[in-house]
Amino acid sequence: MTEYRTRPLAPRRFDPAEMRARAASFLDEVRERRSVREFSSEPVPRDVLVRCIEAAAQAPSGANKQPWTFALVTDPALKHRIRVAAEKEETEFYTRRATPEWLADLAPLQTGPEKDFLDVAPALIAVFSRRWEEATGHKHYYVSESVGIACGFLIAALHHAGLVTLTHTPSPMEFLATLLGRPKSEHAYLLLPVGYPAEGCRVPDLTRRPLAETLIEFSPGE
Ligand code: IYR
User: Facing residues of 188 across strands?
Assistant: First the structure.
Protein backbone atom coordinates (compact mmCIF):
# COMPACT_ATOMS: atom_id res chain seq x y z
CA MET A 1 0.00 0.00 0.00
CA THR A 2 1.21 3.49 -0.80
CA GLU A 3 2.06 5.49 2.29
CA TYR A 4 1.16 9.16 1.96
CA ARG A 5 3.05 11.69 4.01
CA THR A 6 1.22 13.75 6.60
CA ARG A 7 2.46 16.41 8.96
CA PRO A 8 1.04 17.87 12.15
CA LEU A 9 -1.30 20.83 11.73
CA ALA A 10 0.32 23.91 13.26
CA PRO A 11 -1.93 24.74 16.24
CA ARG A 12 -3.86 28.02 15.93
CA ARG A 13 -6.11 28.28 18.97
CA PHE A 14 -7.34 31.62 20.33
CA ASP A 15 -9.38 32.10 23.47
CA PRO A 16 -13.02 33.07 22.82
CA ALA A 17 -12.43 36.77 23.52
CA GLU A 18 -9.63 36.90 21.02
CA MET A 19 -11.67 34.90 18.50
CA ARG A 20 -14.50 37.42 18.87
CA ALA A 21 -12.13 40.32 18.35
CA ARG A 22 -10.57 38.68 15.30
CA ALA A 23 -13.93 37.78 13.75
CA ALA A 24 -15.24 41.30 14.34
CA SER A 25 -12.15 42.93 12.92
CA PHE A 26 -12.28 40.75 9.80
CA LEU A 27 -15.95 41.63 9.35
CA ASP A 28 -15.14 45.34 9.68
CA GLU A 29 -12.46 44.99 7.08
CA VAL A 30 -14.53 43.14 4.49
CA ARG A 31 -17.46 45.47 5.13
CA GLU A 32 -15.30 48.30 3.85
CA ARG A 33 -14.54 46.53 0.58
CA ARG A 34 -16.31 47.94 -2.45
CA SER A 35 -16.15 47.26 -6.15
CA VAL A 36 -14.53 50.27 -7.80
CA ARG A 37 -14.86 51.50 -11.38
CA GLU A 38 -12.94 54.77 -11.11
CA PHE A 39 -9.24 54.06 -10.85
CA SER A 40 -6.17 56.23 -10.49
CA SER A 41 -3.44 55.45 -13.02
CA GLU A 42 -0.83 55.49 -10.23
CA PRO A 43 1.28 52.33 -10.49
CA VAL A 44 1.13 49.81 -7.66
CA PRO A 45 4.10 47.85 -6.32
CA ARG A 46 4.43 44.68 -8.37
CA ASP A 47 5.56 42.62 -5.37
CA VAL A 48 2.31 43.44 -3.53
CA LEU A 49 0.26 42.15 -6.47
CA VAL A 50 2.40 39.03 -6.67
CA ARG A 51 1.94 38.38 -2.93
CA CYS A 52 -1.84 38.73 -3.31
CA ILE A 53 -1.82 36.27 -6.21
CA GLU A 54 0.26 33.92 -4.07
CA ALA A 55 -2.38 34.26 -1.34
CA ALA A 56 -5.11 33.42 -3.86
CA ALA A 57 -3.20 30.32 -4.87
CA GLN A 58 -3.38 29.04 -1.27
CA ALA A 59 -7.09 28.38 -1.77
CA PRO A 60 -8.38 24.82 -1.42
CA SER A 61 -9.21 23.11 -4.71
CA GLY A 62 -10.68 19.85 -5.95
CA ALA A 63 -8.09 17.11 -5.30
CA ASN A 64 -5.56 19.93 -4.83
CA LYS A 65 -5.33 20.32 -8.61
CA GLN A 66 -5.07 24.13 -8.24
CA PRO A 67 -6.90 24.59 -11.53
CA TRP A 68 -6.07 28.25 -12.06
CA THR A 69 -3.68 30.60 -13.81
CA PHE A 70 -3.40 34.29 -12.92
CA ALA A 71 -2.19 36.58 -15.72
CA LEU A 72 -0.83 39.89 -14.40
CA VAL A 73 -0.99 42.51 -17.14
CA THR A 74 0.66 45.90 -16.64
CA ASP A 75 1.72 46.51 -20.26
CA PRO A 76 -0.37 49.52 -21.42
CA ALA A 77 -0.56 48.30 -25.05
CA LEU A 78 -1.90 44.92 -23.98
CA LYS A 79 -4.32 46.50 -21.50
CA HIS A 80 -5.63 48.62 -24.34
CA ARG A 81 -6.18 45.61 -26.59
CA ILE A 82 -8.09 43.96 -23.76
CA ARG A 83 -10.20 47.10 -23.36
CA VAL A 84 -11.05 47.25 -27.05
CA ALA A 85 -12.06 43.57 -27.11
CA ALA A 86 -14.04 43.86 -23.85
CA GLU A 87 -15.90 46.95 -25.08
CA LYS A 88 -16.89 45.09 -28.24
CA GLU A 89 -18.57 42.38 -26.17
CA GLU A 90 -20.02 44.85 -23.70
CA THR A 91 -21.56 46.96 -26.46
CA GLU A 92 -23.23 43.81 -27.75
CA PHE A 93 -24.38 43.05 -24.19
CA TYR A 94 -25.82 46.48 -23.43
CA THR A 95 -27.49 46.95 -26.83
CA ARG A 96 -28.69 43.41 -27.61
CA ARG A 97 -27.87 40.55 -25.26
CA ALA A 98 -29.08 41.86 -21.90
CA THR A 99 -32.75 41.44 -21.03
CA PRO A 100 -34.67 44.58 -19.94
CA GLU A 101 -34.86 43.06 -16.46
CA TRP A 102 -31.06 42.65 -16.34
CA LEU A 103 -30.52 46.25 -17.49
CA ALA A 104 -32.93 47.46 -14.82
CA ASP A 105 -30.98 45.52 -12.18
CA LEU A 106 -27.75 47.12 -13.38
CA ALA A 107 -29.13 50.67 -13.40
CA PRO A 108 -28.07 51.48 -9.78
CA LEU A 109 -24.50 50.48 -10.65
CA GLN A 110 -24.45 52.99 -13.52
CA THR A 111 -22.43 50.65 -15.70
CA GLY A 112 -22.26 50.81 -19.47
CA PRO A 113 -20.27 49.50 -22.42
CA GLU A 114 -17.39 51.94 -21.91
CA LYS A 115 -14.62 50.28 -19.91
CA ASP A 116 -11.97 52.99 -19.55
CA PHE A 117 -10.82 51.39 -16.29
CA LEU A 118 -9.16 48.66 -18.37
CA ASP A 119 -6.78 51.35 -19.68
CA VAL A 120 -6.57 53.45 -16.53
CA ALA A 121 -6.05 50.83 -13.81
CA PRO A 122 -2.31 50.15 -13.60
CA ALA A 123 -2.78 46.38 -13.45
CA LEU A 124 -5.21 43.81 -14.75
CA ILE A 125 -5.38 40.32 -13.33
CA ALA A 126 -7.02 37.88 -15.74
CA VAL A 127 -7.97 34.67 -13.96
CA PHE A 128 -8.20 31.50 -16.01
CA SER A 129 -9.67 28.20 -14.93
CA ARG A 130 -7.78 25.11 -16.08
CA ARG A 131 -10.32 22.52 -17.05
CA TRP A 132 -7.84 19.74 -17.69
CA GLU A 133 -4.12 19.08 -17.32
CA GLU A 134 -2.51 20.22 -20.53
CA ALA A 135 0.19 17.50 -20.46
CA THR A 136 -2.00 14.47 -19.74
CA GLY A 137 -5.50 15.57 -20.74
CA HIS A 138 -6.75 14.52 -17.27
CA LYS A 139 -9.85 16.45 -16.23
CA HIS A 140 -9.80 18.63 -13.12
CA TYR A 141 -12.54 18.54 -10.48
CA TYR A 142 -14.87 21.23 -9.13
CA VAL A 143 -13.08 23.73 -11.32
CA SER A 144 -15.42 26.69 -11.04
CA GLU A 145 -15.88 26.19 -7.29
CA SER A 146 -12.09 26.04 -6.82
CA VAL A 147 -11.37 29.09 -8.97
CA GLY A 148 -14.23 31.01 -7.35
CA ILE A 149 -12.73 30.36 -3.91
CA ALA A 150 -9.28 31.45 -5.14
CA CYS A 151 -10.80 34.66 -6.54
CA GLY A 152 -12.41 35.30 -3.15
CA PHE A 153 -9.02 34.96 -1.50
CA LEU A 154 -7.52 37.28 -4.14
CA ILE A 155 -10.15 39.99 -3.71
CA ALA A 156 -9.79 39.84 0.09
CA ALA A 157 -5.98 39.93 -0.16
CA LEU A 158 -6.03 42.98 -2.48
CA HIS A 159 -8.41 44.80 -0.15
CA HIS A 160 -6.31 43.86 2.88
CA ALA A 161 -3.24 45.32 1.13
CA GLY A 162 -5.08 48.62 0.55
CA LEU A 163 -5.87 48.20 -3.14
CA VAL A 164 -9.20 48.31 -4.92
CA THR A 165 -10.54 46.08 -7.64
CA LEU A 166 -13.59 45.23 -9.68
CA THR A 167 -14.87 41.76 -10.50
CA HIS A 168 -15.34 42.44 -14.18
CA THR A 169 -16.94 39.78 -16.36
CA PRO A 170 -17.24 40.90 -19.96
CA SER A 171 -19.21 38.08 -21.47
CA PRO A 172 -18.20 36.08 -23.41
CA MET A 173 -14.55 36.41 -22.42
CA GLU A 174 -12.92 34.11 -25.00
CA PHE A 175 -10.93 37.10 -26.30
CA LEU A 176 -8.83 37.02 -23.12
CA ALA A 177 -7.47 33.52 -23.73
CA THR A 178 -6.71 34.52 -27.33
CA LEU A 179 -5.01 37.83 -26.48
CA LEU A 180 -2.98 36.26 -23.67
CA GLY A 181 -2.09 33.13 -25.64
CA ARG A 182 -3.57 30.64 -23.19
CA PRO A 183 -3.87 26.95 -24.08
CA LYS A 184 -7.17 25.25 -25.01
CA SER A 185 -7.50 23.83 -21.49
CA GLU A 186 -7.85 27.32 -20.00
CA HIS A 187 -11.03 29.30 -19.85
CA ALA A 188 -11.24 32.99 -18.85
CA TYR A 189 -12.99 33.16 -15.49
CA LEU A 190 -12.70 36.74 -14.25
CA LEU A 191 -10.97 39.99 -15.16
CA LEU A 192 -9.88 42.19 -12.27
CA PRO A 193 -8.61 45.72 -12.81
CA VAL A 194 -6.50 46.57 -9.75
CA GLY A 195 -5.11 49.81 -8.38
CA TYR A 196 -5.91 52.78 -6.19
CA PRO A 197 -9.23 54.58 -6.40
CA ALA A 198 -9.29 57.80 -8.44
CA GLU A 199 -9.33 60.99 -6.44
CA GLY A 200 -12.90 61.76 -5.41
CA CYS A 201 -13.96 58.24 -6.41
CA ARG A 202 -17.58 57.50 -5.59
CA VAL A 203 -19.29 54.12 -5.36
CA PRO A 204 -22.96 53.15 -5.45
CA ASP A 205 -24.54 53.39 -2.02
CA LEU A 206 -25.35 49.68 -1.69
CA THR A 207 -26.02 47.67 1.43
CA ARG A 208 -25.99 43.96 2.15
CA ARG A 209 -29.06 41.95 3.11
CA PRO A 210 -29.60 41.79 6.88
CA LEU A 211 -28.11 38.76 8.58
CA ALA A 212 -31.59 37.54 9.52
CA GLU A 213 -32.28 37.04 5.79
CA THR A 214 -28.91 35.52 5.11
CA LEU A 215 -28.40 33.03 7.91
CA ILE A 216 -30.68 30.13 8.77
CA GLU A 217 -29.74 28.12 11.79
CA PHE A 218 -30.46 24.63 13.07
CA SER A 219 -29.43 24.40 16.72
CA PRO A 220 -30.03 21.62 19.24
CA GLY A 221 -33.35 22.03 21.14
CA GLU A 222 -33.25 23.94 24.41
N1 IYR B 1 -20.53 42.61 -17.70
C2 IYR B 1 -21.20 43.89 -17.79
C3 IYR B 1 -22.55 43.88 -17.13
C4 IYR B 1 -22.59 43.65 -15.67
C5 IYR B 1 -23.25 42.54 -15.17
C6 IYR B 1 -23.39 42.36 -13.83
I7 IYR B 1 -24.47 40.78 -13.16
C8 IYR B 1 -22.86 43.30 -12.92
O9 IYR B 1 -23.01 43.10 -11.55
C10 IYR B 1 -22.20 44.41 -13.39
C11 IYR B 1 -22.06 44.57 -14.79
C12 IYR B 1 -20.32 45.02 -17.28
O13 IYR B 1 -19.26 44.75 -16.72
O14 IYR B 1 -20.67 46.17 -17.44
Answer: 128
CA distance 212 to 152: 23
Q: Is 109 in the pocket of ligand 1 (CB under 6 A)?
A: yes
Q: Is the CB of 186 under 6 A from ligand 1?
A: no
Q: How far is the CA of 106 from the centre of ligand 1 (A)?
A: 7
Structural domains in the chain, CATH included, are 39-199 (3.40.109.10)
**Segments in the chain below pLDDT 70:** 222
**DSSP conformation class of 63:** G
CB 189 within 8 A of CB 135: no
pLDDT in tens, 2-56: 999 999 999 999 999 999 999 999 999 999 999 999 999 999 999 999 999 999 9
Judge whether 78 and 179 are in contact, CB under 8 Å: yes
Residue 15 is classified by DSSP as: -
- Could you identify the atom of ligand 1 that is nearest to the CA of residue 90? 2
